Every structure is written in C-alpha cells, then in structure tokens.
Amino acid sequence: MGAHKLLFSELKLWTSGRGGWIARLHKGIGGCGKASLSSCSPKVCIVGSGPAGFYTAQHLIKARQDVEVDIYERLPVPFGLVRFGVAPDHPEVKNVINTFTQTAKHSRCSFYGNVNVGKNVSITELQQAYHAVVLSYGAEGNRSMGVPGEDLAGVYSAKDFVGWYNGLPSCRELSPDLSCETAVILGQGNVALDVARILLSPIDILKKTDITQPTLEALAESQVRRVLIVGRRGPIQIACTIKELREMVNLPDTRPDLVAADFDGVKQALKDLPRPRKRLTELMLKTALEVPGEKEQERRRKASRSWGFRFFRSPVEVLAEPGHSRIAGIRLAINKLEGSGEGAQAVLTGEVEDVSCGLVVSSIGYKSLPIDPSVPFDSRKAIVPNTMGRVKQAAGLYCSGWLKTGPTGVIATTMNNSFDTARSIVEDMDSGTLDMSAAKPGSQSISALLEKRGVKPVTFSDWEKIDNVEMKRGEPRGKPREKLLTVEEMLHVAWT
C-alpha cells in the first residue's frame, strides 16, 4: 500500500506540468477495458461551422457531460451564413456569434478550420475516428432558373451576389456591372429583399456596416435606381417576413411602386389568413392602395429610387443585347393562380411581358451538394435522406441544417432542427444503437492524417487573431470590421 501511495505521489509530481497528460491516460483506461491514449468518451465530429453545426455542438455538449465534439470547416473562418449570408445592415442577427464562440471555447469542443472534408479527409476516415459524424455543411449550390440566356453577363445568383457583398472569398472577383438603371430580382423571399435593400440603400447607411470596401465603392458608383422583385404567385404567397418588408417600405430615398390590380380580392381573403401572414398582407395592401399622409407623400416625391413587387410572373428567357453576350432584359410569363392560400399553384396563361433591365439576380433558392460518394444523397430534393437527422442506411452518420431539410427558414428554424438531430444522437448513444464500447481516436488520428497530407488546420485561437485584425481594420472607417477577403490573407494572419 505504502509503495502504491509513493508511486502515485511521484506520478502526480511528474505530471504536474504535463498539461494533464495523466488525466487523459486515466480517461483512456477507465471504462474501456484497455489502456489507450485516446479517451473513451463519446467522440462526435461535425462537418460545417455555420448555425447548424454550432447549434448541434451546443446541444450535444449540454446534453451529455462526457461527449467531445470536433467541428471541421472548409474555410479558415467559422460561422458560415451568419458571416457570409446575413445582410451587413442586420448586425443584431449576427449576435448569435457570441453564443457560438462560447461553444467553440468549451473545454469539450474544438474547431478545425481550413479542412476540406471530402477532399483533405474522407467521410469514411472520419467515421473510423469518431463514434458519430454529423454533416452540417449547408447549401452552397445555386438552383438554376433553367431558361435560355441565364448564362449571359449581368445575370447572377443571389448566393454569389450576397457572397460578394459579404466577403466570401470565392465571390471576391464577381464585380457585378451596376451601370444600368433597372435591376430585376427573381424570387420574393428575405434574401431577395436583402439584395434589393443593398442595391438601393444610401451609402451613408451601408458604410457603417461590415459590408466589404470593394462593394461599398462599387455601390457608390452604382446607376441602379429601380429594383423589381418578381414572384410567380401572388401577394398572399409571398415568402418574405414582415420585418424585411417594413424595412423596404421605410428605406430612405426610395418609394414603393406596386400594381393595384395585383391586389384584387386580397382584402376579402384577409380574414382567413393566419396572423403573421395577415399582418404581412395588410402592410402590402396599405403600401399598394392607401393614399399616404402628407409627410410620406413628400418623402416619396423626393425619392430618387424605387422598388416594387411584380406578382404572377415567371422567367421565360433572359434577353441579350443584339450581337452581344450582355443582358438587355428579361421575358416574363404571366401566370394565374389555381387554388388559394399557401397551396395555390401558378399556371401559365400563354401571355408574356418583356422588361428592360441590365442586371438580373436569381433568388430562387440555394441547394445542397454531395461532398463524398459514400454519403446517400437525394439529388432531386438536394438533401441527405434522413429520419430526424439520422442518415438513412448509414449507421453513425447524421445531418442537420439545410442539408437535412432543404434551404428553408431563419436561424431559429435551423436551431430547432439542429437540436432535434443532437437529441437523436444522444438517444442513440443512450440506447446502444451507437456502439460506444470501442475507444475512438477522434482528432488525434485525423490531425495525423492531415499533417501527412500537408494540411494545417486553423484553430479557434487562430481565428481570434483574424477576428482582431478585421476589427482593427474597421476602426478607422467607423465599421465593426473590415473583412479579409482571401483565404491566403486569412491564413497569413492566423499563423503569424
């Protein structure tokens, strides 16, 4: 007994400066039945560090006191669409970054940026290293309009346009031509309204945001004075929320331009609408049909820019300038509605209408892409087929966020669906559906693989260096930050 005590005190002394190595060794022995340097605690890896990834991690860490979570991200910077999708003039929406930062700094969570899963490391390799793998890499593909002329110069996807003004490295070179007077946005969701607002907002409003400097300079020179936001169905089916609509209605130096005839019969339908939809529709009706007060009339009269919804319209063809590969306009099919409410379908009438414009932004939805042939993928729905986040026919594989549901809802929607996935994982751990008996090496073996392949991950403290540099760069301009725009710049800052 005395010898044991002596040995233990010597060991304790020896490990006091060893960063808890002995504790990790002890964890490796306890509950595994064999000594191992890798701990036996459940190891989960999450692919993608947007809201879905972070909310899944947050719930897992909270639900089980022993789970260890590693988050892998292709870019050197975390937070996905919170950083690259949320409009610069919506800083309050970005406050979730504070919660995500707490999760990332938790003792049982690690962040590995600059790791391209599917390329630098395969899903199969991750499955060998972890008890569970969660795919949360979102939707980075564009839904195609499927009409002639959509490849002409002057036609952009909303995903790329948003990436351009938000500093997504892959969209840095976009430099859209803003020398035209009229822009047409296809789609009537919140992203479409974000794009319209950025195109029309006074520069004085935008220059206080984290919008990128090159975008700010391009918008200062922009000739765009009129934005039409086109949807295939009617006012009752519009996909935006009241907050975004109110921002458009109140946008300084702009006036609304709505077609009264588009609202025939809408007043009568109001009583049957659910409350959020009813309030949204009432605001549209008021904007379209009511004569505003004197002050508002004066404001509208002085406005140098306009925006408007165009309902019951679908793109048929993007029209080119004669003999050029540039856009001159867009041909829209005129639709009528069959059915009512949310389920109403747009049906072609056979009539068309041409609209002259020099810029078309297609905001008809993002779509997920497969990243590894070993993962089941439904290419028609552009999701990973799953039940409550459990990937079908793939034990130990899960998904959350837009990859699970398709690109719908706001950040709160993603939070709930990610919590659901985390609950499924915890249930599977507790019920024995997930085999927890074998110790898994987790990031230990993945880090070794990456090193062998010449890939150096960016840690969360590396990201904090980038964060600090960006905030310092923003200060002299009165901006919250001035984003680094290339991966090379990000890595340089992270590693120096």
Question: Strand order of the main beta sheet, please?
Answer: 6-14-7-8-10-9
Averaging pLDDT over every residue, what do you get?
91
Question: Strand tally, please?
Answer: 18
Number of helices: 19
Radius of gyration: 26 Å
Shape: globular
Q: pLDDT below 50 for ≥5 consecutive residues: which ranges? A: 1-31, 33-38
Q: Give me the secondary-structure category.
A: alpha/beta
- What's the end-to-end separation, in Å? 51 Å
User: How would you sum up the major sheet?
Assistant: 6 strands, parallel
- Beta fraction of the residues? 15-25%
Q: Concise description?
A:
By secondary structure, the chain is an alpha/beta fold. Helices cover 37% and strands 18% of the residues.
Word description of this protein:
It is built from 19 helices and 18 strands. The protein is α/β, with parallel strands linked by helices and 496 residues long. It has a 6-stranded parallel beta sheet with strand order 6-14-7-8-10-9. Helix 3 crosses helix 16 (411-431). The protein is globular. The model is unreliable at 1-31 and 33-38 (pLDDT under 50).
Index terms:
single chain, 496 residues, alpha/beta, 5-stranded parallel sheet, 18 strands, 37% helix, globular, disordered N terminus
